[in-house]
Amino acid sequence: MKEKLLEKFDELFKSDGTEKVYFAPGRVNLIGEHTDYNGGHVFPCALTIGTYGVARRRNDNKLMLYSMNFDGLGVIQCSVESLKYKKEDDWTNYPKGVIWALKEKGYTIDNGMDILFYGNIPNGSGLSSSASIEVLTGFICKDLYGLDIDNINIALTSQYSENNFNGVNCGIMDQFAIAMGKENRAIFLDTATLEYTYAPINLAGYKIVILNTNKKRGLGDSKYNERRSECEEALRRLKTKLPINSLGELTEEEFEKNRYLIGDEVMEKRAKHAVYENRRTIMAVEALKNNDIETFANLINQSGDSLREDYEVTGVELDTLVEEARKQQGVICARMTGAGFGGCAVSIIKTEAVESAIENVGKAYKEKIGYNADFYVVDIGNGPAIL
Ligand code: GLA
């Protein structure tokens, strides 16, 4: 892989031996969905698939960006002195945004760079290919410009760029999971305080399998921002009586006692999901600690049902995949993961049942939806690295 990337870099930019190869993972969230902008908990992990980058500093201020995944777009060029979101700059708005955000935060980036990217996360799949590019860019800048920034602040800067440069109001989960990933561990993160612990994922006899609907989605054109505002409005109405800062501060009982304050059926459903999902996430991590895989799996299924019925972020493709997966022997849980509206589902499957489950679900999906789903048996990997 490294050789292939260096070869392509040489072809495009002429190697001088100073370029380095970097990697940042993608992520999958096990439970705690749409809680990160509601002050709740999340439980994601980094994957071993992700984004590679070959990069070096230039002597002028040009930023030369190329992706092997978007070969047809060629090298997209701009200056580090005037970084602006431009629709026609396509995927490069992600790295550009991070460099812009680093500068906004006071870091000095005065030279440009040549960067080649290559990702093996299917893009638009909800496995955070964009956050992976963002964190990778932050990590590359830290190394090439000697920036005094740790991985948590790389995550925060990446989120800042996504919010303020790319106009997507995402929470911190994706960037944090990618920047702080640890092999065979999921990250139990309190998004209200950024306190976190690592939880070993010892699913002896089981595999984590991701099911891709192959229905592309982009956060910008999804109803993501709309869900976020619905929760904010629900919170605003609850705050007329309750001294809270986020939905994540409520227990299920407190919510049930006060939900009348919201006074809108749809907003009540959204807020209910945020409150209950946060509590489910806390319980799921507890269950996992006690090696109670059955409870862990049940909570993941409940999360999926709530995202379908109350948060309404699934759709026929995700629903079909999840429903077919849950019918299979050996599949102990399945639910949508990430923002939703397409993208991927995550499931836990008994090792010996993985092959047949994939075959059966694939067949049923093709029959009902008309095109193929993809399946990945994944491993939990580390955060960004120099290779
Ligand atoms: C996207 C966002 C995250 C999070 C999830 C839903 O992945 O980038 O911040 O809100 O959706 O849990």
Structural write-up:
This protein is α+β, with helices and mostly antiparallel strands and 387 residues long. It has a domain at 2-29 and 44-190: 2-Layer Sandwich (Ribosomal Protein S5, domain 2), CATH 3.30.230. The chain has helices spanning 2-13, 93-104, 129-145, 151-164, 173-179, 224-238, 252-258, 265-289, 293-309, 316-327, 354-369; strands at residues 20-31, 41-57, 62-67, 76-79, 113-119, 185-190, 195-200, 206-212, 331-336, 344-350, 374-378, 385-386. The strands form 2 sheets. Strands 1, 2, 3, 4, 5, 6, 7 and 12 form an 8-stranded mixed beta sheet that branches. The structure holds alpha-D-galactopyranose. Alpha-D-galactopyranose binds next to helix 5. The site of alpha-D-galactopyranose (GLA) has 11 residues, from helix 5.
Write the layout of secondary structure elements.
Blueprint: H1 2-13, E1 20-31, E2 41-57, E3 62-67, E4 76-79, H2 93-104, E5 113-119, H3 129-145, H4 151-164, H5 173-179, E6 185-190, E7 195-200, E8 206-212, H6 224-238, H7 252-258, H8 265-289, H9 293-309, H10 316-327, E9 331-336, E10 344-350, H11 354-369, E11 374-378, E12 385-386
Parallel strand pairs: 3-5
Antiparallel strand pairs: 1-2, 1-12, 2-5, 2-6, 3-4, 6-7, 8-10, 8-11, 9-10
Helix pairs in contact: 2-3, 2-4, 3-4, 3-5, 4-5, 6-8, 8-9, 10-11
The protein binds alpha-D-galactopyranose.
Residues 29, 33-34, 36-37, 170-171, 173-174, 338-339 line the site of alpha-D-galactopyranose (GLA).
